[in-house]
Design brief:
- The chain is elongated and about 95 Å long.
- Helix 1 runs antiparallel to helix 2 and helix 3 (81-97) runs antiparallel to helix 5 (188-218).
- Helix content is 48%, strand content 17%.
- The protein is built from five helices and six strands; from the N terminus they run H-H-E-H-E-E-H-E-E-E-H.
- By secondary structure, it is α+β, with helices and mostly antiparallel strands.
- A six-stranded antiparallel beta sheet has the order 1-3-2-6-5-4, sandwiched between helices.
- A hairpin with a 3-residue loop joins strand 2 (100-107) and strand 3.
- The chain starts with a helix and ends with a helix.
Length: 219
């Protein structure tokens, strides 16, 4: 239980003790005293409920799942050296500084990076309805608990039974998928970190694509 939740729980127990002590020392039960006892009881129950919910919502309390897969790195060999370096650096930071288990980058109908736990499935990854919605709206989608989403099987080619998923679009042509070890494991800071790196990666990918198109036209 996190420290703030323990403080709330202790306050609830103290209030409950004082309420019972006040009732025990009262010489008579007037309507005013009965109303005060009911209100104090409701406040105590409310504080206990806050402490329980605070504990359940704490990402550090979620137990990592035993996910199947092998640790590995798959990087598209045709990419330029600076782009490979960017992908390698960013993916390493995300997998070590956040509770991420696996990462996938999909750009222009091609998976250019897989890192972390890799799926044993041979099925290629194709952006489904959830990823396409993120790309169309150019907004981050966070699935804090995939068991609550019927479309979670869209991410089975990334890694089966992922408890939590962050989907950040690379404009309308790509997507970054970050899978977590447990439910509600990603914090707002993790999400902002991924969005910042994805914006930087998008700029480099678009620049590389423009450069490749110019070279083709010149040829």
């Amino acid at each position: 239980m996190p420290a703030p939740a323990r403080v709330v729980l202790v306050c609830a127990l103290v209030l409950l003790t004082l309420t019972l002590l006040n009732a025990g020392l009262a010489e008579s039960f007037t309507p005013e005293l009965q109303r005060a006892e009911v209100l104090c009881g409701m406040a105590t129950v409310g504080l206990m409920l806050v402490a329980v919910l605070w504990t359940r919502a704490d990402p550090t309390q979620a137990k990592p799942r035993a996910l199947s897969g092998e640790q590995g790195l798959q990087l598209e060999p045709s990419l330029e050296a600076d782009l490979k370096e960017e992908l390698a650096w960013g993916s390493h930071m995300l997998l070590t500084a956040t509770p991420a288990a696996t990462l996938l980058v999909h750009w222009r109908d091609q998976v250019i990076l897989r890192r972390g736990l890799l799926s044993d499935a041979d099925a290629p990854f194709t952006p489904g309805p959830i990823c396409r919605r993120a790309m169309d709206r150019e907004t981050t989608i966070s699935l804090v608990n995939t068991t609550l989403f019927p479309g979670r099987h869209e991410f089975d080619p990334v890694l089966k039974n992922l408890p939590a998923v962050l989907i950040v679009p690379l404009g309308s042509h790509g997507i970054v998928v970050l899978g977590g070890w447990s439910e509600r494991c990603f914090s707002q800071a993790d999400e902002q970190w991924l969005e910042g790196w994805s914006a930087r990666l998008r700029t480099k990918l678009e620049s590389a694509t423009t450069k490749a198109c110019c070279e083709v036209d010149q040829a």
